[in-house]
Amino acid sequence: MKSIIIFYSYSGNTAEVAKTLADELNKQGSTDIIRLEALDESNSFLGQCKRAFFKKRARIKDTILDLSSYSLICLGTPVWAFGMAPALRTYIDRCKGAENKNLMLFTTFGSGTGNNKCLNEMQAILAQKGVREFKRFSVQQFKVKDKDFVRKKIEESLRL
User: Fold this and answer.
1) Which residues, in sequence order, are bridge partners of residue 60?
2) Contacts of 12 (CB under 8 A, 6+ apart)
3) 83 near 107, Cβ under 8 Å?
4) What is the mean pLDDT of residues 89-118?
5) Which of 17, 23, 34, 105 is the most buried (most CB within 10 A)?
6) Pick the CATH number of 2-154 from 3.30.1490.20, 3.40.30.10, 3.40.190.10, 3.40.50.360
7) Shortest CA distance to 8 belongs to which of 80, 102, 69?
């Protein structure tokens, strides 16, 4: 199975989960991993949250946008102000080739407020692009370094 993980991480929490996910997926085949880079982001966490709340896009560094060669596509983001990071929003807008593919959405979050709203919005946008099957999981920020917990979340999601 050929998989790809595309994620944005500000503090490193989402990157930590993406790395564990890559380790798990590599047991089933090859996995490419891409960390999105926003070229115009604020250095302030509150500034980032404001951009997420108002559904702003980010200018992102050029990356793979055609996902047609992958059998599993994984997209990850921190939850900020009930939504996804602007860099991932931009990526989802621009990507292509996800029609009729398996998608795994994952988030990292602090309080949990808005986590399901974020996942639901991601799923709705991608459904409009022709994606029909979604797997999802989330990890609270204080659990991201607990590899066993994260692996369990991943395994549960893959079984769905």
Assistant:
1) 38
2) none
3) no
4) 93
5) 17
6) 3.40.50.360
7) 80
